[in-house]
Amino acid sequence: MSAECSGYLSADKVPVxxxxxPRAGGDARAVYCCGFQDVKYCCDDPHSxxxxxxxxxxxxxxxxxxxxxxxxxxxxxxxxxVCVLCYLFISTKPRSKLDTGLSLQMAxxxxxxxxxx
Length: 117
Known about the structure:
two-stranded antiparallel ribbon, 1 helix, 32% helix, rod-shaped, transmembrane helix
């Protein structure tokens, strides 16, 4: 089985003549024409030809990098905010127990100053 890669213009606008797969001296399993409109090669995956230019994938990669960078910055800002809020919550807690104003006594015990006659 063999496939024909038609001629194309490379990314540098240089014409490249067509060739058949597998290429002489190449992998015998690489029987499919793969790549992009401006970069073609032989491979063993029948679903590896993309009908657009290789530069298009570069811009998709740059877009993905920008999106992931923005997401990382937002996540970092969220984590910093949570840490600051936790620190403020912990540092503003009162250090001693609150005085309720009532002194509790055990049942049946006497209070000071009172005498039983």
